[in-house]
Amino acid sequence: MSRYRSTRCWTAAVTTLAITAAACGGGDDGAEGGDTETAATIDAGVQSGVKSALEGTTTATGTATTAARSTPQSIEEWEELWAEERAAVVEKIEKNGWGLSADGNTLTGPEGFTIDLTACASGWSDTQGLSDTEIKIGDVVAQSGIGADNGLVWKTADLWFKHYSELGAFKDSTGKTRTINFVVRDDGYDVARAIPLVDEMLDSEKVFALWTFGTPAGLKVYDKVNQYCVPHPTLIGGSPAWGDPVNHPWTTGSYIAYTTEAVIWAAFIDKNFAELSAGDGKVTVAGLVANSDFGATYENAFKLAVAQSPNKDNIEFVTEKFEITAPTVTDPMTTLASKNPDIFITMTGGVQCTQIINEAAQNGMAATTKFRFMSSVCKSAAYVGKEKVGGDGSQADGWYIVGGGYKDIGASENDGDPFSEWGRQFLTERGVDYKASGNYGYGFFLAWLWTQTLRIAGDLPGGLTRTNFILAQRAFEGTSPIHLDGIAVNMNGNADAFFVEGSDLSVYDSAKQAWVVQGDVIELSGESPNCAWDVTVSACK
Q1: Which of 70, 242, 270, 364 has the most CB atoms within 10 Å of its CB?
Q2: pLDDT attached to residue 460
Q3: Which ranges of the chain have pLDDT less than 70?
């Protein structure tokens, strides 16, 4: 395989850290409020921020230097903080006059955010899925198959929604107090199953809002969901396509964008280039890529990031693709090991996370490859814990991850963290083994974000409606209880379409059974350009 050169224009708008790119030779006609240029570039401010963060990073474990902040010391203190933050968002919305127009035909929000409600599907209702006593929320998620562990977030969300419903939290400005009816369907991380289940939620269940799981399914259904004008928030997946407030205003994401992650990988290679290239001046990067929209997003973004590197002529990127439903990854991992890579990057997820660690130990890559990266979706203890990777867990030791900035509430390093302790007790009392998967903990973030924006929407004039709910999302600012200090959670209309744009860089310590943060967190909130997704090239226009 020839060494990678920038021989074509990759039509991608790589996010945070990054690459503010538009389609080759032109801008994105629909990306109002987003930063677009006529050629792929690396934003100087973003590049400086990344370099600064990575310069404080070492390659040894146990060197976290994240500054501490004043953390609420009880769930009651957290609730006080969240109430203040909700009130501030409501005040901001009302002060700026955002909301429905007098004729009810247009929704306006921050930084030019606009929805033409006359374009919604026939029969659309702003209050569909609501009764005087209930909010019906649909969730199409993997409860079985290769993505089942990531899908466990729904379990925590279900318990959280029931808890806050019992507390009477969903009382709106019209005086109605509702509980959440959470309707969950299992798609097995199978697009063919997901599509009819989404149709069921839209056409039969007639949900107020819809939650879906995974990049492949999300890209297949989000056009229809937006045509129906149904809120589609915190889609579980990191495609930058969810950052498209102009063409898909009803859809928002939740993870750090996979494109952001890819650029951090490239920046890490540049930082460590001298060590990686010792001997022949060349660096070989091996990537195991899922043969899906999920994997293609990673691959294309990384290629573009390498094309921007000052070391691009001396970086070879070799890949092996595989079907994500394949029972093992032995063959492609063996092929990649034969290339003697200096760095290995996982561009897939699910059950393959554990398989990759075990294969790297068996084929020698763990001993000879200087740096090995898991993808962000592999952060769960269910993939890297000692019971999964060979008894003492040493096979997972030293793997790196761009982890998305969130804490595993079950990990020992979070003993004593007030919210982690509360979350552990909350789950244990409801029969959930929080140590079984980090995704139980991540579910708190998603459920918290839903709850905060539902309550903000309810406090707006007219009470809880679909338009108030999506406005609350697009104007949101709040403090996540499970994210590391310094990771912001916010959105700003057409100018900032991503809730989370920061991340940790962590290394797995098998003795501690934990991901240990290296250096400072990387936080560049508001830097990610909007992304009108082009399915033909798996990249932004």
Answers
A1: 242
A2: 98
A3: 1-53, 56-69
The whole-model pTM stands at 0.88
What's the pLDDT score for residue 413?
82
Q: Give the pairing of strands 106-108 and 134-141.
A: unpaired
* Predicted local distance difference test score (pLDDT) of residue 60: 37
Note whether 28 and 13 are within 8 A (CB): yes
> Distances in Å between the alpha carbon of 239 and those of 213, 348, 527, 533?
11, 13, 16, 9
The answer to whether 258 and 289 have CB atoms below 8 angstroms apart is: no
| Alpha-carbon gap, residue 112 to 249, rounded angstroms | 12
3-state DSSP assignment of residue 252 = strand
d(C-alpha 214, C-alpha 290), whole Å: 13
Q: Which residues contact 123 (CB under 8 A, 6 or more apart)?
A: none
Give the pLDDT confidence score for residue 49 in this predicted structure: 59
Local structure of 95: helix, strand or coil: helix
- Two tokens, residue 332: 């492609």
Angle CA 19–23–26, to nearest 5: 110
Q: What is the pLDDT of residue 40?
A: 40
Tell me the HSE value of 454 on the side-chain side, using a 13 A CA sphere.
27
Structure tokens at 252: 């928002």
pLDDT computed for residue 481 by the predictor: 97
**Polymer length in residues for the chain:** 541
Domain 1-70+256-406+490-541 identical in fold to domain 75-254+411-482: yes
CB-CB contact of 218 with 239 (8 Å):
yes
pLDDT at 438: 87
Distance separating the N- and C-terminal Cα atoms of the chain: 28
Q: To the nearest whole percent, how much of the chain has pLDDT over 90? A: 69
Q: Is 184 exposed, middle or buried (0-12, 13-18, 19+ CB in 10 A)?
A: middle
DSSP state of 39: S
370: CB partners within 8 A, 6+ apart: 272, 275, 276, 342, 343
Sign of the CA dihedral running 382, 388, 394, 396: negative
**What's the Cα-to-Cα distance from 46 to each of 49, 50, 152, 530, rounded to whole Å?**
5, 6, 34, 15
Q: Taking the domain 1-70+256-406+490-541, which CATH number applies?
A: 3.40.50.2300
> Domain 75-254+411-482 carries which CATH code?
3.40.50.2300
Neighbours of 119 (CB within 10 A): 11
The token duo for 500 is 């989370």
Sign (positive/negative) of CA torsion 331, 336, 338, 342? Answer: negative
- In tens, the pLDDT along 255-264 reads 988 888 988 9
Q: Is residue 540 within 8 Å of 21, Cβ to Cβ?
A: yes
